Amino acid sequence: MSTRNNFLARKGPSRLSIYPGNSQPPRRDRLPLAGCYLGCLLLALASVTVCLAQAGPASRSSLKVNLPADSPVTLLSADWGESSASERGSAMVLNLHTSLSLRNSSSRRIRGITWMVLSQEVTPGGRASVTKASLDIAPGEAFPVRLDLRLLRPLAPGQLQNGAPLVQMSLDGVLFEDLSFYGPNRLESRRSMTAMELEAQRDRRHFLQVLSASGAEALRKECLASLARQADTPRLDVQLARGRATAVEQERQVQFAFLRFPGAPVDPVAGMAQVAGGEARAPQLEVHNKSSRAVKSMEIGWLLRDSRGREFWAGTVPARASLSPGQKTEVLGQTAFRFAEPSGAPVAIDSMTGFVSQVEFADGSLWIPSRNALGDPRLQRALAPSAEEQRLTSIYRKKGLGAVVEELKKFQ
Q1: How is the chain split into domains, by residue range?
Q2: Domain 34-183 has what CATH class?
Q3: In three state form, how does the secondary structure of 282-309 look?
Q4: Of residues 357 and 250, which shows the higher confidence score?
């Protein structure tokens, strides 16, 4: 499961994505987010209001779960556990720790679900999302969704006493096994969940092929090798930069190097960014649509090398670009990112490498790199495995090889 704010910055070994937007994490997810539902949909909303526990001087708050009348999932129960709302200066801090129990009320198997969690539409820190992927939920089956979030909202007089909801949850999308989709897609969850499902299918096929071709011991070695890579993957924290990081360090122009995947529909051609210390500003990347299909958007992956020769996976940046077959265009633009180690020390950027990590065509279908393409030694060292590979290897670590084999068989 992943969580994200208006730009998604997943820390640690998970796939990390950077989504420029209003400041508020998940992105891989990545994610890399929206306004109000249409008025006609508001009339169809059915809601459940649940009280939250309070902390500090607050006396009462509530959370509202909104589900359209034709929703493919039904809310069975909500356990808000240690959730709390408290005052801090002129703001209210909302700590949500809860588990929803849902039922698949559709006739199709569910592969993923995304919720938007909102305390205040425009306040920084007032909006987040929760995505749960790699599901296999049969019609009529119940399943949990866990939330652990912190949100902010301005504190208004009498807010805690008037009984109005402090947090509202809305269903942004549900992905089914045939890759069909339900929901308003305000957070572009259709694209992100479809990409995660395609990655999951790709990586499950790989593990099954290892098992079929070489047996259980080879699958064990594959799991152990993946866990070792995850443990050794360098960690990087990424933030949207607002204003210059420093007036002391001299800014310099750094050209992108590129990785190109065989069969990729879009290739990077040229690119550069203004770099000072651990900040990269105004990245520009020229891309070329080599395919015979119109392109709607893409994600650009970044690798950073620091002055000590260490290579980091910086994340993916979404880029909307309507590209006709054969067309070239520039993407990214007036954005700035700050890169730091988990300790908070800035990364001294020496060089950058870019590659196209995902392409969305005009008809909504997606391209992702093959497993062989991701075998590049540089990506193997720096790029974290997909969310599905991490899930499968976590099952191996906790339950053993037999549990992994049984999990893989569920999706055959």
Answers
A1: 34-183, 193-233+386-410, 237-382
A2: mainly beta
A3: EEEEEEEECCCCCEEEEEEEEEEEECCC
A4: 357
